[in-house]
Structures are given as structure tokens and as C-alpha cells.
Amino acid sequence: MATQPIPSASWALFARDVLAAAVLHADQESVPAPRDVSLPHGGVFVTLHKHRRLRGCMGTLDADVPLAEAVRRATLSAAFHDPRFPPVASPELAELDLEVSVLSHPEPMHDLAELVIGRHGVLVRRGPQRGLFLPQVAAEHHLDRETFVSRCCDEKAGLPADAWRQPDTEVLLFTTEVFRA
Q1: Residue 108: helix, strand or coil by DSSP?
Q2: Nearest to 121 by CA among 104, 136, 106, 134
Q3: Is 60 contained in some domain?
Q4: Which of 60, 76, 153, 172 could form a disulfide with 163 if both were Cys (CB 3.0 to 4.6 A apart)?
Q5: How far apart are CA 58 and CA 81, in angstroms?
Q6: Does 1 reside within a domain?
Q7: What does the DSSP assignment read for 101-118?
Q8: Number of domains in the chain
Q9: What pLDDT, in 10s, does the model give residues 60-87?
């Protein structure tokens, strides 16, 4: 599973500029995107932290959207549509750290031993239910492989914790390139 090359860390700065424009009611569509906006990806997630605490995290798995548009959408979703948090307000801008995770295309996991903690994220799917954990989640919370996949099933996909063991549940692995600003 190869990670896609990303030209620079400018994706996080782009996300920050999009967020600032949106919060300040400026035209966020006019924020210039980094070069090579046609770069392939398997999705994008943007995570906001305020004083090292989660402030929002949303993304898309739509790989057909150009990277710049995926980063723009994920940034706005994390800032304004994460149901766990109120919308970001202008006084918070200086206190926010942004993390842009550009996902590789997910590949099926055939055995739990394939999952490398801190390197792989997981995507669990069964019918219309799905859940995703970025690789950072396992490392930050000191989760082992089984706990990582089980919690993704339970907390993100709304499935039983052991659903990943069932043949009708698909578990996919992906890597990320992470950019911070």
C-alpha cells in the first residue's frame, strides 16, 4: 500500500486560509489552492485542535473530487458541521491547530496482523454503516490492533465491536500524509 506523494505542506496552510475566510465571511472559494490540485487521493480529513483538545474532525472519502476541493469541503465540515461541537467562531482562529490527512486509496485487510499501529487507519463497512479511524487515533490513545478495529466498529460504524470478524463486514486499511498548520 503506497502513500501518494504530496508536493508540500501547503495543504494545511490552504485549509487554514479557507477556514479564516469562511469564519470572517470572506469568499473562501477565492482562496488559491496549492499547485498540483489534480493529485490522486483516497479521501481527506481535516482535524481541528484547540489547546491540544479535539475541536472538530470531518472528511470525505470521495476520491473523485480534486484534492483542493476535498480539503476545502473537509475544512468547512470540521469547522461548522461536526455535530459534537458548535461552529468555529472568529475569536478561536488564533487558537486552532489544523491537521490535514490525505488518505491513500483503502485496501482490504485480510488478516489483523497486516494492521500496523500508527501507520494504518481503518475503514469498516457493512451495508450502509461505515466508520473510520485515522492512523493517529491508535497511536494517540495507545490502542492495540484488536481494540483499534473493535472501537471503530462500535464507536464509528455503530456495529457490534466484534463485527470486523464477520464475513459481511469489510475492513479496509489506508495510510495518510499529514500536514499541520
Answers
A1: strand
A2: 134
A3: yes
A4: 153
A5: 8
A6: no
A7: EEEPPPEE--SGGG--TT
A8: 2
A9: 999 999 999 999 999 999 999 999 999 9
Residues 92 and 132 in one domain: no
pTM: 0.89
Same domain for 23 and 94? yes
- The residue written with cell numbers 492495540 in the block is 144
Q: Are residues 15 and 98 in the same domain?
A: yes
Amino acid at 148: F
Q: How far apart are CA 124 and CA 108, in angstroms?
A: 10
pLDDT tens-digit map of 10-53: 899 999 999 999 999 998 888 988 875 556 799 999 999 999 99
CA distance 48 to 74: 11
Q: The C-alpha cell of 41 is what? A: 487521493
What does the alpha-carbon distance between residue 86 and residue 174 come to, in Å, rounded to a whole number? 30
C-alpha angle 81-158-132 in degrees, rounded to nearest 5:
60
Residue span of the structural domain in which 163 resides: 107-175
Q: How far is CA 23 from CA 48, 60, 81, 145, in A?
A: 14, 21, 13, 38
| C-alpha triplet 181, 58, 94: angle, nearest 5° | 35
Domain boundary among 72, 103, 134: 103
CB 39 within 8 A of CB 95: no
Cβ burial of 56 (10 Å; 0-12, 13-18, 19+) is: buried
